[in-house]
């Protein structure tokens, strides 16, 4: 996405939030002030009748206190300079927690109208925020990608492998992001809110993963909410009005960072799985090809061998027929094959293979050369053949 | 088909492992948080006793009491009844807490009290949230074909053009979703929880399924709730299924935006039918130039035998 589109969507989201804030304020603030008045009245009554407190009265009081606190009112502090839960900046913050789906819950709508509006608001706002998140994540990704490319260029000179560069650059990206979006805000929160280090990190993680329990919420101190130190209520409201939107902006960028990291990891997994699939597929294909080739070769050799043998026997038969006709021996001799004859016939064929010139010259002059050349080349004495006087008939071999 | 079977087995293994992960988290939370909760409860009880023993209480003492009560209430401990209260950190409640942690709903009705619990929550969430997202996307991927691509193709074959088919299918899916996952559970919740109205039920369903999780309404927390463990487990199942359906709906919307050209207009990434080489598209349909990466099939390659016989 281009910068212009992203900034346009950003302004749209801010406008949407402001609209939501005003609507929430209009819906919830009257209800809140009436609750405040009621709890104050109750407290005054209790103090008037304070002699010999019985348990039922106490229970009732506690119930009322608890339900008041759920509306965000703290009866244990001086209620004069307490800021409302539903003033503009807090409503903005609440609307932000709704559309980012964090949902702290320290503030929640109590009127029916507020709840219905909350549903409709979320239905439209969550996809809108999703688009914004996609855009911001994209931009973040390009920025970091360019940075990583530069780092990679530097490292390439040292001739490290590609995967190592990738891994190192991702680690750098993650570390840098963690520093900027997790560690730094945690330190700031620790300092401003007075939480412990663990609590700050806890708040950062719970917020950025959009879990949002609401037991720790940034920016609650100024309202004199449940905090043991009552001396810090002199935080001026001007500071508070800027603090919350800044926190929300941090949430936006932090969420985009988390989303970018997750999508990068997802991309990696996809690429790795595709590559692995391809490689495995290739490997399997090569292995199968190799086996197929080998078996084909084997079959081919066998086939050729058998064809050859058949061929040779045929030729041997014809040669011997001619030989026998020349030598004047009866062609209808017994067709039994002694091992010697078989070896003779086979060797005939083989020798013909090894001496192609001989085979070439065999056909036109079957007579004299055959007798001398082949028999002699066999290593068998000419006497043997002449002695035996029987020649194999090629047909018997089939 | 073997790869299809294998991917189903993998998914089942994934889900089993996810359930084990939840159980493990529940156990750890339970063992870490329970003692702390007991301690807080005892402290509150003794505070109340002190208060009642006085004849006349002062405003300062009252304020101190209220402060402690409120802090305790924030951590999920109520100071109201003397009778024994079911713990917020028994096994099913801890599992419920782990589930809200991992699906990022985060009601906040019970939060870790001890430092160790907080630290463990951080680690658990950092691992569990991506894992849950992975599981949900994998499930949605499996469901996408029979629930989205199939019906759209069917409608397309019935004669509707792609845009109309997508829109009609989306409408039907939305109607089904609202009925099954909002209206029916809302009615059920408002019946099971005595103090919830129907609107409160719908509000709760919506806030939970969008993973906002404000926490003003949390089921199974009424005092004297019958079958609390079963109730909590069924709410967890409802959350998981509902989240899956929401993801599916998102994918369907994305696909429709694709078909209507909206994603190109806003220059967003297209809805890719990721890993099309999965079960549903046979490899043989792939173009020829991909043959080196295909495993060899019996009849696809000519052998010497066939050449010679011809």
Automatic annotation (TrEMBL), chain A:
Annotated family: Belongs to the two pore domain potassium channel (TC 1.A.1.8) family.
Domain of life: Eukaryota
BP terms from Gene Ontology: stabilization of membrane potential
Localization in the cell: Cell membrane
Chain segments annotated as transmembrane: 7-27, 85-104, 116-136, 167-189, 201-218, 247-269
Species of provenance: Neogobius melanostomus (round goby)
Keyword Cell membrane appears in the UniProt entry: yes
Substrates-to-products reaction catalysed: Rb(+)(in) = Rb(+)(out); K(+)(in) = K(+)(out); Cs(+)(in) = Cs(+)(out)
Potassium channel domain mapped to chain residues: 81-139, 178-270
GO cellular component, one term: plasma membrane
Matching SUPFAM superfamilies: Voltage-gated potassium channels
Membrane topology: Multi-pass membrane protein
Gene3D superfamilies: 1.10.287.70
Keywords, in A-Z order: Cell membrane, Disulfide bond, Ion channel, Ion transport, Membrane, Potassium, Transmembrane, Transmembrane helix, Transport
A GO MF label: outward rectifier potassium channel activity
Protein's name in the database: Potassium two pore domain channel subfamily K member 2
UniProtKB/TrEMBL annotation, chain B:
Glycan-bearing residues: 82
Localization per record: Membrane
Compositional bias annotation for Basic and acidic residues: 273-291
UniProt feature, compositional bias: Polar residues: 292-310
Gene Ontology terms for molecular function: outward rectifier potassium channel activity; potassium ion leak channel activity
UniProt domain Potassium channel: residue ranges: 83-142, 178-255
Annotated TM spans: 7-31, 122-145, 166-189, 201-218, 230-250
Keyword match Transcription regulation: no
Family: Belongs to the two pore domain potassium channel (TC 1.A.1.8) family.
The name this protein goes by in its record: Potassium channel subfamily K member
Biological source species: Neogobius melanostomus (round goby)
């Amino acid at each position: 996405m281009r910068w212009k589109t992203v900034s346009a969507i950003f302004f749209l989201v801010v406008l949407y939030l402001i609209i939501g804030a005003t609507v929430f304020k209009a819906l919830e603030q009257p209800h809140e002030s009436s609750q405040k008045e009621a709890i104050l009245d109750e407290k005054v009554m209790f103090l008037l009748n304070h002699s010999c407190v019985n348990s039922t009265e106490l229970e009732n009081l506690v119930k009322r206190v608890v339900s008041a606190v759920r509306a965000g009112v703290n009866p244990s502090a001086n209620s004069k300079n307490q800021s409302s839960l539903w003033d503009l900046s807090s409503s903005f913050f609440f609307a932000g927690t709704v559309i980012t789906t964090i949902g702290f819950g320290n503030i929640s709508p109590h009127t029916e109208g507020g709840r219905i509006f909350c549903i409709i608001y979320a239905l439209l706002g969550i996809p809108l925020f999703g688009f914004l998140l996609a855009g911001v994540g994209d931009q973040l990704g390009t920025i970091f990608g360019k940075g990583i490319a530069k780092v990679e260029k530097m490292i390439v000179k040292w001739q490290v492998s590609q995967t190592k560069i990738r891994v190192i650059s991702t680690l750098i990206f993650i570390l840098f992001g963690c520093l900027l979006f997790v560690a730094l805000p945690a330190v700031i929160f620790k300092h401003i809110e007075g939480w412990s280090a663990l609590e700050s990190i806890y708040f950062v993680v719970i917020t950025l993963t959009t879990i949002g329990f609401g037991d720790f919420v940034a920016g609650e101190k100024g309202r004199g909410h449940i905090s043991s130190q009552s001396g810090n209520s002199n935080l001026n409201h001007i500071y508070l009005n800027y603090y919350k939107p800044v926190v929300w902006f941090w949430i936006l960028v932090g969420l985009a960072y988390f989303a970018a990291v997750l999508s990068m990891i997802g991309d990696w997994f996809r690429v790795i799985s595709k590559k692995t699939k391809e490689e495995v597929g290739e490997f399997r294909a090569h292995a199968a090809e190799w086996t197929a080739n080998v078996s084909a070769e084997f079959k081919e050799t066998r086939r050729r061998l058998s064809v050859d043998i058949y061929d040779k026997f045929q030729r041997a038969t014809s040669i011997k027929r001619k030989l026998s006709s020349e030598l004047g021996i009866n062609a209808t001799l017994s067709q039994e094959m002694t091992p010697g004859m078989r070896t003779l016939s086979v060797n005939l064929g083989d020798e013909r293979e090894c001496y192609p010139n001989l085979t070439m010259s065999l056909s036109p002059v079957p007579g004299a050369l055959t007798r001398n050349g082949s028999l002699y080349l066999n290593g068998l004495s000419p006497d043997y053949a002449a002695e035996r006087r029987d020649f194999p008939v090629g047909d018997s071999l089939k | 088909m073997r790869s299809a079977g294998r991917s189903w087995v993998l998914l089942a293994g994934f889900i089993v492992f996810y359930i084990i992960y939840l159980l493990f988290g529940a156990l750890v939370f339970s063992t870490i948080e329970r003692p702390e909760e007991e301690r807080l409860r005892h402290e509150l009880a003794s505070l109340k006793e002190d208060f009642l023993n006085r004849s006349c209480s002062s405003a300062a003492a009252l304020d101190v009491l209220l402060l402690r009560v409120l802090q305790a209430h924030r951590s999920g401990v109520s100071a109201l009844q003397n009778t024994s209260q079911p713990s917020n950190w028994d096994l099913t409640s801890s599992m419920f807490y782990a589930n809200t942690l991992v699906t990022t709903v985060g009601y906040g009705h019970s939060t870790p009290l001890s430092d160790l619990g907080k630290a463990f929550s951080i680690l658990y969430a950092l691992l569990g949230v991506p894992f849950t997202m992975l599981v949900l996307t994998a499930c949605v991927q499996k469901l996408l074909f029979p629930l989205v691509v199939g019906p759209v193709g069917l409608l397309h074959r019935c004669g509707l053009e792609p845009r109309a088919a997508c829109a009609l299918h989306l409408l039907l899916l939305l109607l089904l979703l609202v009925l099954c996952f909002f209206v029916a559970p809302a009615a059920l919740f408002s019946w099971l929880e005595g103090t919830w109205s129907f609107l409160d039920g719908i509000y709760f369903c919506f806030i939970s399924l969008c993973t906002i999780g404000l926490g003003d309404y949390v089921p199974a927390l009424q005092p004297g709730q019958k079958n609390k463990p079963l109730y909590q487990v069924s709410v967890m199942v409802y959350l998981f299924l509902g989240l899956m359906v929401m993801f599916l709906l998102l994918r369907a919307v994305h696909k429709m935006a694709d078909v209507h050209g909206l994603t190109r207009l806003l220059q967003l990434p297209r809805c890719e039918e990721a890993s099309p080489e999965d079960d549903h598209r046979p490899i043989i349909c792939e173009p020829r130039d991909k043959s080196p990466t295909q495993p060899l099939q019996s009849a696809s390659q000519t052998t010497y035998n066939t050449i010679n016989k011809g």
